[in-house]
Amino acid sequence: xxxxxxxxRLLLLVLGAVAAISAxxxxxxFFARQLPREAPKFYDFRLWHGSLVRYEKLxxxxxxxxxxxxxxxxRVGYKYPPTYASLIRPxxxxxxxxxxxxFLIANLIAxxxxxxxxxxxxxxxxxxxxxxxxxxxxxxxTWETLSDLQMEVPILLCLAIAALFAAxxxxxxxxxxxVAGAFKVYPWxxxxxxxxxxxWKLFLGLCLGAIVTIGLSGLSIPLRNAYEFxxxxxxxxxxxxxxxxxxxxxxxxxxxxxxxxxxxxSAEDLDGMxxxxxxxxxxxxxxxxxxxxxxxAFFTFRRTRTSRAVWNALPERRRVILMLCAGVLxxxxxxxxxxxSYQCLLAMPLLVSVAWVRPSDRVSVVLLLGAITIGxxxxxxxxxxxxxxxxxxxxxxxxxxxxxxxxxxxxxxxPVTSPA
Length: 420
Hints:
Blueprint lengths: L2 H24 L16 H16 L24 H6 L7 H26 L4 H12 L2 H7 L5 H13 L5 H14 L8 H5 L3 H18 L6 H10 L15 H13 L5 H4 L8 H25 L4 H6 L2 H19 L12 H10 L5 H16 L5 H5 L1 H22 L10
Helix pairs in contact: 1-5, 1-18, 4-7, 5-17, 7-8, 8-10, 14-20, 16-20, 17-20, 18-20
């Protein structure tokens, strides 16, 4: 009996059970709540559509005079570069359900293309491919993102394109990141590891991709709006929302500090959401953060012995993909406001972990299973979340650290092949 093949098939069986439990308890994987009896409402998309309706009247995309516009997480208007708005504007003459249908189909195609692109870039085949497909399909943050027609789906596609360019062109990798950042600014931070490695050609590509994408958006929305965003709106945006949908480490620490000090949070802190008052939930959350981060750090640094010589011996494709993953994981964990929808992008390091984890490394397998379970089950909004939002948010916060540990432990080993 081939133990490796048996282990993989057992893992596939576990994933199937997770999918069944998720569908039963949380509703359809494709929507945020249980199957709706009416057409789904894509709230964020409709908010942006409303901004474009006002744009047609006022000729300004950024309604900064609205109360709370610059507060982190406030749902009062469009607060991004004009790229995505420029894609919506040509459809403005049609009813909004028709526009939503077009963008829903486009997003579904983008999800399939991103998944296929990542699997091709990683060279997945055999049992690894059989494992990667259900892991990607069951990655609930993607479907949560789709439920609002958020911008993370096209950004995920850009990451897949960057991975495809990993062994071919540094300029191509940078251009893909440049396009991603033209939708929302934070993907440009994914290039930070390349800055430390002095990959200057990549930054040339990033600049070209960003300039061309924003320039093309000017065909639909005048470029003065891009100037207004980057020089007048963006410098005033910021802050840390303590809403449970903000799963960044700063937000989690902020919530714990409020619990420990007993300070009553203001409405601006929580964006209309209350903190759990149950003391048990408070200490469970604090304990989860301390235990998980401590355990990950201990096992990661105990196992990892990556030296410069070992790093330089890795194939260029693998080094580039690891740096992309490091940029994604570090950015989503540490930026002040990292919304739940952003974790759609963790599908990339997740698939890389599936591709490179060694079955003999039991700690990495356990960490990867933990990440898959959290991402497949604990990402819906239902009765359980309403009762224990802090615990759900804490699990979601530690998710990037689980994947980072798996990748760190795999970086000191050679290429991984599928078991025969």
